[in-house]
């Protein structure tokens, strides 16, 4: 690290659990953030500010006015352009150092697999089960840690699936099938700070996994009820019948 980096990241480096070694791990890491909406926006901003060396942003949507209430990586003058381009502009105002790659279309199958194979960790900030299932399956196949978050109305949830650990459950252990009645924010609403809280925690868990500090949420589901300000944790266990990571999958 150079003198400017030592100064920029000094408050992290000062922590005995983190130190220069932790910062160097961040600077050498490559994280993919899939979805640059309410979850991906704060996650990307905190990871860029913290000094992740390379970020690949993936989102096929263009920014519109309804996004600005919660998707804080974007500004009004960028309405109509792709969210990854908009977010990249904001991230470079926070920290010009990271390499930021923009993928301005939805990735599936071989393209998504090619991306996940070359990163160190994936943040799933998408808003639908089909995408979450596909990301989970590819991360499991290539043993890439996955930080998954979701939020709607006044509720949020967060979990970490670290497939480097053979005992780790996967997202399909929690949700076996797509729910035909899946609710969306456009239909049911979302309070901005709720999704922002979960996105910030996704960044925190990603930093912990990359640097190896603390205990991650692997094997646990954290549930946030903003209405009552209640936090709960549920234990998740590997399901032998899981269609992705189960014994007979």
Layout of SSEs?
Elements: H1 3-8, H2 10-13, H3 19-27, E1 30-34, H4 40-50, E2 54-58, H5 83-94, E3 99-103, H6 109-118, E4 121-124, H7 129-142, E5 146-152, E6 155-161, H8 171-174, H9 185-188, H10 192-211, E7 220-225, E8 230-235
Parallel strand pairs: 1-2, 1-4, 2-3, 4-5
Antiparallel strand pairs: 5-6, 6-7, 7-8
Helix pairs in contact: 4-5, 4-10, 6-7
Radius of gyration: 17 Å
Count the domains: 1
Low-pLDDT regions: none
SS class: alpha/beta
Topology pattern, helix = H, strand = E: HHHEHEHEHEHEEHHHEE
How far do the termini sit from each other? Answer: 45 Å
Number of strands: 8
Q: What form results from the Cα inertia axes? A: globular
Task: Name the CATH homologous superfamily.
Answer: NAD(P)-binding Rossmann-like Domain
Major sheet size, sense and barrel closure: 8 strands, mixed
CATH topology: Rossmann fold
Strand content: 15-25%
Describe this structure in words.
This protein is of the alpha/beta class and 249 residues long. It has one domain: 3-Layer(aba) Sandwich (Rossmann fold). It is built from ten helices and eight strands. Strands 3-2-1-4-5-6-7-8 form an eight-stranded mixed beta sheet, sandwiched between helices. Helix 6 crosses helix 7. The radius of gyration is 17 Å and the shape is globular.
């Amino acid at each position: 690290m150079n003198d400017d980096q030592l100064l920029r990241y000094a408050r992290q480096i000062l922590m005995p659990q983190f130190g220069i070694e932790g910062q160097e791990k961040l600077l050498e890491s490559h994280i993919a953030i899939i979805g640059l909406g309410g979850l991906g926006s704060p996650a990307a901003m905190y990871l860029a500010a913290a000094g992740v060396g390379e970020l690949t942003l993936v989102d096929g949507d263009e920014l519109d006015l309804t996004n600005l209430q919660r998707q804080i990586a974007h500004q009004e003058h960028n309405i109509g352009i792709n969210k990854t381009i908009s977010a990249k502009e904001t991230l470079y105002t926070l920290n010009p150092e990271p390499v930021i790659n923009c993928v301005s279309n939805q990735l599936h199958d071989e393209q998504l697999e090619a991306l996940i194979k070359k990163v160190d960790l994936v943040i799933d900030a998408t808003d639908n089960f089909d995408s979450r299932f596909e990301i989970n399956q590819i991360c499991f196949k290539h043993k890439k840690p996955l930080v998954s978050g979701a939020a709607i109305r006044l509720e949020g949830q967060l979990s970490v699936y670290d497939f480097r650990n053979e005992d780790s459950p996967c997202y399909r252990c929690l949700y076996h099938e797509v729910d035909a009645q899946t609710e969306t924010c456009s239909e049911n609403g979302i309070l901005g700070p709720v999704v922002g809280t979960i996105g910030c925690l996704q960044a925190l868990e990603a930093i912990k996994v990359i640097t190896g500090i603390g205990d991650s949420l692997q094997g646990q589901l954290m549930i946030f009820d903003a209405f009552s300000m209640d936090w709960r944790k549920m234990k998740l266990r590997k399901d032998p019948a899981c269609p992705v990571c189960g014994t007979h999958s």
